[in-house]
Amino acid sequence: MVRKKACIFISGSGTNLKALIKSSREYNFPINIKYIVSNTKKAAGLRFAKLYNIPFRVLNLNKLINLESFLKDLKKKNIDLICLAGYMKILKKQFINRFNKKIINIHPSLLPKYKGLNTFKRVLDKNELLTGCTVHYVNNKLDSGKVILKKKVYIESKDNEKTLKNKVQAKEYRAYSESIIDIFR
Hints:
Blueprint: E1 4-10, H1 15-24, E2 31-38, H2 46-51, E3 56-58, H3 67-76, E4 81-84, H4 93-98, E5 103-107, H5 119-125, E6 130-137, E7 147-154, H6 161-183
Parallel strand pairs: 1-2, 1-4, 2-3, 4-5
Antiparallel strand pairs: 5-6, 6-7
């Protein structure tokens, strides 16, 4: 099997990145992670890039003067898929259009509900009975691309933002890898 080359964009702790790296080490997983991009040098997830010897770059795409240079860099690396894994910046329309249907994201709610930030607080404030995560294609509208996969989590009365986040993230780690398998099946 010829594996597709992927680039993972991160902003924080890199827990979804770690799960994707683990999946990518499996023989029949359809992607090989060749590049990691972070919008901040303080992203704790960069430790996984170093640990697994994956090339990385710290770069704020919204302040990038020469977007074409970065796009050429991705093309030179033959990147087939970009995975936003906790990447907390909105991508420019020009960038999204250049990678049409080759950028996916994971969001911690059952889209179209609770797009954007602070999802766990909003879910709890609305007394929802369930929530989850959604893997979707990225388009030019926030958290509005075509859904690839959803995973549900039931909310218990004892849940708070932290416990709910932990439950949803546990689903995310499987959902992202399953979505990538579905895309390349």
